[in-house]
Write a structure and sequence with these properties.
Radius of gyration: 17 Å
Order of helices and strands: EHEEHEHEHEHHHE
Largest sheet: 7 strands, parallel
Bound molecules: nicotinamide-adenine-dinucleotide
CATH topology: Rossmann fold
Structural class: alpha/beta
CATH superfamily: NAD(P)-binding Rossmann-like Domain
CATH architecture: 3-Layer(aba) Sandwich
Number of domains: 1
CATH class: Alpha Beta
Strand order of the largest sheet: 3-2-1-4-5-6-7
Length: 238
C-alpha cells in the first residue's frame, strides 16, 4: 500500500485526488485548513488540520512521515486565487498568495527531500495554465503559479540523485467551487472561455486527478521536471 499526502485535499480538485488514490488502495493524508467535503469520502484517510500560511513550519510532514515511514507521493495542491490586477494587489494579499501557493510548497519540497534521501519518492506540484500564459487580472496568482514551475524544475534536478521525481500539473478551466465563485461574478465570461477552449468544455476534477495519479505512479518513472497542461488545449490555442 502506498502512502500519499495531499495538501488542500479537502475541497475541489483535492478531494477528487483523494478519491482517485483511495481507489488504488492507498492510504491518504490530507493536510488542509478545513475538513471541507472530506466527510463525504469513505476510506483510509487521515485529516491533519494545518494552516499552510505558516509556510516555514513543515512539522506536519515530519509527523506524517513518523506515522507511515515513507511518503510515496506528495501532492502540493493547496492554493488560493486572487482576482486582481497588479496595481490593486496589497502587500498583505501578495504575501498571503505567495505563502500558500509558493512558500509552503518550497518548504514542503525541501523537507520531503531531506526525509526521503534514502527512499526516493515522487512529488506533484499544482500550478495552473496561469503558470504558462498570462491571465487577465490575476497578477499575484500568475506570478505565484509561474514560481511553482521554478520550484518543480529545481527539485527535479536537485533531488533526482535521491530517486525523487518532481513534476507539475497545470489545470485549465475546471468546474470547482473556486472557478464557480470567480465566474459567478461574470457569467458571460464562462461562455466566452468555453468558446476559446479548443475542446469547447471545462474540465472535471477527475481529469486533473488522473494526471496527478499518473505522474506519481511508477508508469511515470522516466518523467521528471515537466509541467503538464491539463486544459483541453487552452494554453496552446491562439
Ligand atoms: N479550480 C480550478 O479550476 C483550478 C485551475 C487551475 C489551478 N488550480 C489550482 O488547483 C489547486 C486546488 O484548487 P481548488 O479549485 O480545488 O481550490 P479550493 O479552493 O476548492 O480548495 C483549496 C484547498 O486548499 C486548502 N487551503 C487553502 N488555504 C490553505 C491554508 N492556508 N492552509 C491549509 N490549507 C489551505 C483548503 O483547505 C482546500 O482544501 C490550487 O492550487 C489552485 O490554484 C485550480
Amino acid at each position: 500500500m502506498k502512502n500519499i499526502v495531499i495538501t488542500g485535499g479537502s475541497k475541489g480538485l483535492g478531494v477528487e485526488q483523494v478519491r482517485r488514490f483511495l481507489e488504488e488502495g492507498c492510504k491518504v493524508y490530507v493536510v488542509a485548513n478545513m475538513r471541507g467535503d472530506l466527510d463525504e469520502v469513505e476510506g483510509d484517510v487521515v485529516y491533519k488540520e494545518t494552516d499552510l500560511s505558516n509556510w516555514s513550519d513543515t512539522s506536519w510532514l515530519d509527523e506524517i512521515y513518523a506515522d507511515c515511514g515513507k511518503i510515496d507521493g506528495l501532492v502540493n495542491n493547496a492554493g488560493m486565487h486572487l482576482k486582481k490586477a497588479m496595481w490593486d494587489v496589497s502587500p498583505e494579499e501578495f504575501e498571503l498568495v505567495f505563502s500558500i501557493n509558493v512558500k509552503a510548497m518550497f518548504a514542503a519540497c525541501g523537507r520531503y527531500a531531506e526525509l526521503h534521501k534514502e527512499q526516493g519518492g515522487a512529488i506533484v506540484n499544482i500550478s495552473s495554465m496561469g503558470g504558462l500564459i498570462g491571465l487577465k487580472t490575476a497578477a499575484a496568482y500568475v506570478t505565484a503559479k509561474t514560481a511553482v514551475l521554478g520550484i518543480t524544475r529545481s527539485m527535479a534536478v536537485d533531488a533526482a540523485e535521491f530517486g525523487i521525481r518532481t513534476n507539475a500539473v497545470c489545470p485549465g478551466f475546471i468546474d470547482t467551487d473556486m472557478t464557480r465563485a470567480i465566474l459567478a461574478k461574470d457569467p458571460a465570461r464562462r461562455e466566452k472561455i468555453e468558446g476559446r477552449i479548443p475542446g469547447g468544455k471545462f474540465g472535471t476534477p477527475r481529469h486533473i486527478a488522473n494526471a496527478i495519479h499518473f505522474l506519481i505512479s511508477d508508469q511515470a518513472e522516466h518523467i521528471n521536471g515537466i509541467a503538464l497542461p491539463v486544459d483541453n488545449g487552452y494554453s496552446i490555442a491562439s
